[in-house]
Amino acid sequence: MAYEIPVTQARAELAELINRVVYGGERVVVTRHGKPLVALVSAADLQRLENEEAVEETAEEQVISSVSSFRSVPSTQGERHRFGIAAEHRGHEGRER
């Protein structure tokens, strides 16, 4: 959980807040009118967050790549009857103009 502090108070206590973040491992959220404005996190915390973001982006790209590599395979009449499928979606390839 982050420690919240109004911006006016944060100005006066900046050095102390930096120490809390760096040496105490805290996260500080500076607020204005009770709403979060900025957050103070240690450089190590920031690096961890950025690394996690990069890993998530890479995983997302792999999923997108995998899904886009699948192609549609038309089903046979027997398969449609066996599974009780009455209609088949043909996509753009099956449309006549």
Description:
By secondary structure, the chain is of the alpha+beta class. It has a domain of 65 residues: YefM-like fold, CATH 3.40.1620.10. The protein is built from four helices and three strands; from the N terminus they run E-H-H-E-E-H-H. It has a three-stranded mixed β-sheet. Strand 2 and strand 3 form a beta hairpin. The longest helix has 27 residues.
Would you spell out the secondary-structure blueprint of this structure?
Blueprint: E1 3-6, H1 7-12, H2 14-24, E2 28-32, E3 35-40, H3 43-69, H4 77-82
Parallel strand pairs: 1-2
Antiparallel strand pairs: 2-3
Task: Determine the CATH superfamily of the domain at 3-67.
Answer: YefM-like domain
Count of helical regions: 4
Would you identify the regions where 5 or more consecutive residues have pLDDT less than 50? none
Kindly estimate the percentage of residues that lie in beta strands according to DSSP: 15-25%
Query: Which structural class fits the helix and strand makeup?
Result: alpha+beta
What string, H for helix and E for strand, traces the elements in order? EHHEEHH
| Termini gap | 59 Å
Provide the residue-averaged pLDDT. 81
What would you say about this model in short?
The protein has 97 residues and is α+β, with helices and mostly antiparallel strands.
